[in-house]
Amino acid sequence: MLGILRSIVQEVNGARDLQESLDIIVSRVQAAMNTEVCSVYLLDPASNRYILMATEGLHKKAVGKVSLAHSEGLVGLVGSREEPINLEDAPSHPRYRYFPETGEERFRSFLGVPIIHHRRVLGVLVVQQREASRNFDEGEEAFLVTVSAQLAGVIAHSEATGAISGLSLTGEEARDVSFNGVPGAPGVAIGRGVVVYPPADLDAVPEKATDNPEGELAAFQEAVKAVQEDIQKVSERLSDKLRPEEQALFDVYLRMLGDNALPGEVVNRIRNDGLWAQGALKQVVNQYVRHFEMMDDHYLRERAVDIRDLGRRILSHLQEGDTRQVDYPEGTVLVSEELTPAMLGEVPRGRLVGLVSVRGSSNSHVAILARAMGVPTVMGLVDIPVNQLDGKELIVDGFEGQIFASPSAELRHFYEEICEEEDELFRGLEALRDKPCITTDGHRVSLLVNTGLMTDVVRSLSHGAEGIGLYRTEVPFMIKERFPSEHEQRQYYREQLEAFAPNPVTMRTLDIGGDKALSYFPINEENPFLGWRGIRISLDHPEIFLVQVRAMLKASEGFNNLQIMLPMISNVSEVEESLHLIYRVYHEVREEGYQIHMPRVGVMIEVPAAVYQVRELAERVDFLSVGSNDLTQYLLAVDRNNPRVAQLYHSYHPAVLQALVRIAQDAHSVGKPVTICGELAGDPGGALLLMAMGYDALSMNAASLPKVKSVIRSISREWAAQLLEDVLLLDSPHVIKSCVDLALRGAGFARYLRPSRSSVPVPTYESAR
Ligand code: PEP
Ligand code: MG
């Protein structure tokens, strides 16, 4: 049976469209089960009816004509019960419904199984048999369930393809289907999709020998030179948007094109193996890519993307005439299977409004650059039929990590209002820049920013931040090709410290591992989020940690506004060991003659174990800071970067809120201040709850800061405390979110609510995953 199943799935995967897929399914299943009838009914979301889409055994003319209401007949019963129904004598069942068009009266036994994709019933697969004596046995039932489970993904994919063109599975109009990925950079963009393909197809290159190696070498060198020039141009085009250290990404590209890197190996193959340049290039690129991909490491997989991109660019120059010019309209939303920083730079200045990448996560290079440039971005849109997005009107919701294609006028209007409100809000809030963040009853909260690149600092200052609550030091590490030297680190750190002096700048020590890896420090683990991460790596590599702390301390000379924060702490000994090393460096640096103060040191609370040891941890340090992104991930056991489980990732989950309350209480009970630097702090509703819990400072993306400040300045702490008390009695994250939204609406902040699936005023359903 497994063999049959595999071959059906293979055949269906090769089908041109949904109708062909369904026709293959019914004919192959009918044959495999040796039954008289096999039919597929799909649920049309527009009419909410099951429509007969394909059949083998019933009258073909009934296809597309016969339909049943959502809970009508045995098909409706299978769909609503969401489980198989196996009947020996279907016509005697009270729910049996007779359609003369199908010729169905001749068939007695009935087995129907629902086709379910990610909890949504897409349709029902039915087999029928004439004689009542033929009872479908358990094995047959199990086979049909397996077929249905395997095919649900294919059907959902076809549905997504149709939905992009505004059509449902059954050909009816279907708009405003959301495709869900993960947020890459916040903001909303409305524009036109421009799908950028890799410029040339390496896989299609044949491997040929050459009798003119010198000619091939010359052509290859020329192509490499041309690509170097292209990258230079792209880098220059972005130079006014990015600071020099961010431009370093392009240097990485250029270095890969250095003689000792990829081109050197291609040259060897042309010379030594007598291959033609294109074949040699293909071999070397594939070897590099395989090497990186086998490492099974997030960051390195992304380097494979860079290599493939470079390979295609060289190939495109080798294959003269393949200089396809892409037309980038005003309001370009750049879409690709694998967006690369170079692709981003090819869009003429001022025309890029949004980015959509099928691969990658919020930590990809492109996402880091997009955040620095303020371009709304959605990453990780797996399974979306990307080619279909070309030329389509797209809405990119970088807050929620979802996109909409060919939106209805209603949805477009909804998002246009959000864009206008964002602009208006920003302009209106500029006036608040220098005002304190204080409630109407006089409670003050510090608003800080999270930074990574220097561009973030520039934006933060213009938004009125009172300091840096989280400087993610791994970001400058990620855009380099080797560990930055102490001197280089000192320069990065000094820029951040100087920009905010005398206000505090909280530098988190290197937080790599999990999904944040360095190309030059590969970590290959089965379960990276539970593995070698954050402080665990720093303590195992004191040579890296000591250099980093030394660079921080030296950089702080003259400013003395440095705070050091330790990530992923799960026990007190990690804190003690870290403190020991920090003290050691402090004394050494002083002995070297630097006039520095001992920085305040803090611990991040981001794993459940730390929640239960807040007092013990707080007693050893100067402050605590909650990493609610990781804390939510670890408390709820939901990978924060996996769009498949994104619905389960909810920082308003009662367990998360209870933990946050406990952390604030326990920290204050031993007299230590507590900050929060996860995304929740930048959510206006979340910020209110956190303020009510007693958090002393909230650290967030620069873009969120003005909104949070305006909300806090408009309400009293007492009001927020009452809201907190109310929501702590609730047991569902969704109900809590609604309750907080309602309170914000009531307080006149409806415009601050981010669009979410629950507040978008049109029906949406899940993408093809
Ligand atoms: C967090 O986990 O909430 C946090 C702020 O750290 P990061 O997002 O960098 O893991
Ligand atoms: Mg974290």
TrEMBL record:
Its cofactor is Mg(2+). It catalyses: L-histidyl-[protein] + phosphoenolpyruvate = N(pros)-phospho-L-histidyl-[protein] + pyruvate. Keywords: Cytoplasm, Kinase, Magnesium, Metal-binding, Phosphotransferase system, Sugar transport, Transferase, Transport. It is an enzyme of class 2 (transferase). Its EC number is 2.7.3.9. Residues 17-165 form the GAF domain. Pfam families: GAF, PEP-utilisers_N, PEP-utilizers, PEP-utilizers_C. GO terms for molecular function: phosphoenolpyruvate-protein phosphotransferase activity. It is found in: Cytoplasm. Belongs to the PEP-utilizing enzyme family. PANTHER family: PHOSPHOENOLPYRUVATE-DEPENDENT PHOSPHOTRANSFERASE SYSTEM, PHOSPHOENOLPYRUVATE-PROTEIN PHOSPHOTRANSFERASE. This is phosphoenolpyruvate--protein phosphotransferase. The lineage of its organism: Bacteria, Pseudomonadati, Pseudomonadota, Gammaproteobacteria, Pseudomonadales.
